[in-house]
Design a protein that fits this description.
The strands form 5 sheets. Strands 3-4-16-6-7 form a 5-stranded antiparallel sheet, with no helix packed on it. The protein is built from 1 helix and 16 strands. About 0% of the residues lie in helices and about 25% in strands. Mean pLDDT is about 80; it is low at about 1-40 and about 265-270. The termini are close together. With about 325 residues, it is an all-beta fold.
Length: about 325
């Protein structure tokens, strides 16, 4: 937007100016000066929305760029990595690392959004992808340990949970922005993945339930309050389900809604997997760990994929 500014310039001369102007009294001269000044313009990149006095840029996938507004101003920045995938018969995936900061950006900035880690099918889940805004990197959550993949949770921006066979939780390897995953134990529920706001819980032999993933981070930077980077719960032992700690990154707390099982061919396994429609997209949540369930019916309980990350930029709208 270009705004025309007309200003009044006042020139004040005292009697000391008489040597130059030939008068011995004070004189006030007035002159109008008109100039064209560029006041401000919005930035570019991502999906652009408004929230009250703010302009919001949201990046949900792939790689692109962000160009700041024409005049320097502070931005609020949220960078969320992809969540780790849950392990098969194993631990929950770690939530994607979350970084939030305020600063004045300059120049065109590269932006990348990390995808969610793949779920474990008879193995560990995979780590989530990193999300990047310029030099700021949020690291993907660690995959959950699987019962045929070594059992230990993977390390990343947060740690994945360990599986039932004494699997250890993965570590958070990149600073203070993530937490470690919980451990699993034989005959017990599996460990939860670490979250952006706290560690995943370790096994519970008393109940057999899978343990909760770590807490996420809640903010309204996008215009709507949303929780990011929660760890996935570990799988349960035998007929027990995963505990559902909160709705952070998920659309339901009902265990019965989570699994879908295909009918098998004769002599083959049932293939059971999570209903990913119940996961909150672009939340960076870690995937739930698959249950370990042997009842003579040959069920395979896969882990759940992690949710993809997001990058959100907010600043005061140009007036």
């Amino acid at each position: 937007m270009t705004k025309i500014i007309t200003s009044l310039v006042l020139l004040f001369f005292t009697s000391d100016a008489s040597a130059f102007f030939g008068f011995g009294r004070s004189v006030l001269l007035a002159s109008k000066v008109t100039q064209s000044e560029v006041v401000c313009s919005s930035g570019t990149g991502g999906t652009i929305t408004t929230d009250g006095d703010y302009t919001v840029h949201t990046f949900t996938s792939g790689s692109t760029t962000f160009t700041p507004a024409s005049m320097s101003r502070f931005i609020d920045l949220l960078v969320v990595a992809g969540g780790g995938g849950g392990g098969n018969g194993g631990g929950g995936g770690g939530g994607g690392q979350v970084k939030y900061m305020t600063f004045i950006p300059t120049g065109t900035i590269n932006v990348s959004v990390g995808g969610g880690g793949a779920n474990g099918y008879r193995t560990n889940g995979s780590n989530g992808g990193n999300s990047i805004f310029g030099s700021t990197i949020a690291y993907g959550g660690g995959g959950g340990g699987g019962d045929e993949g070594g059992c230990n949770g993977l390390s990343g921006g947060t740690g994945g949970g360990g599986c039932w066979n004494s699997g250890t939780g993965g570590s958070a390897n990149y600073g203070v922005y993530g937490s470690s995953g919980g451990a699993g134990a034989s005959g017990c529920g599996m460990g939860g993945g670490g979250g952006a706001g706290g560690p995943g819980k370790s096994y519970d032999c008393a109940s057999g339930y899978g343990k909760e993933g770590g807490d996420g981070y809640t903010t309204s930077i996008s215009g709507t309050s949303k929780c990011y980077g929660a760890g996935g719960s570990g799988g349960g032992h035998n007929s027990y389900y995963s505990n559902q700690p909160t709705t952070c990154g998920r659309k339901t707390t009902s265990n019965s809604d989570w699994y879908i099982c295909d009918n098998p061919l004769v002599g083959l396994y049932f293939n059971c997997y999570y209903n990913t429609n119940l996961q909150d997209a672009n939340s960076g949540a870690g995937g739930q760990g698959g249950h370990r369930y042997y009842d003579g019916s040959n069920y395979i309980y896969q882990g759940q994929p992690g949710a993809s990350g997001v990058v959100v930029v907010r600043y005061k709208t140009c007036q």
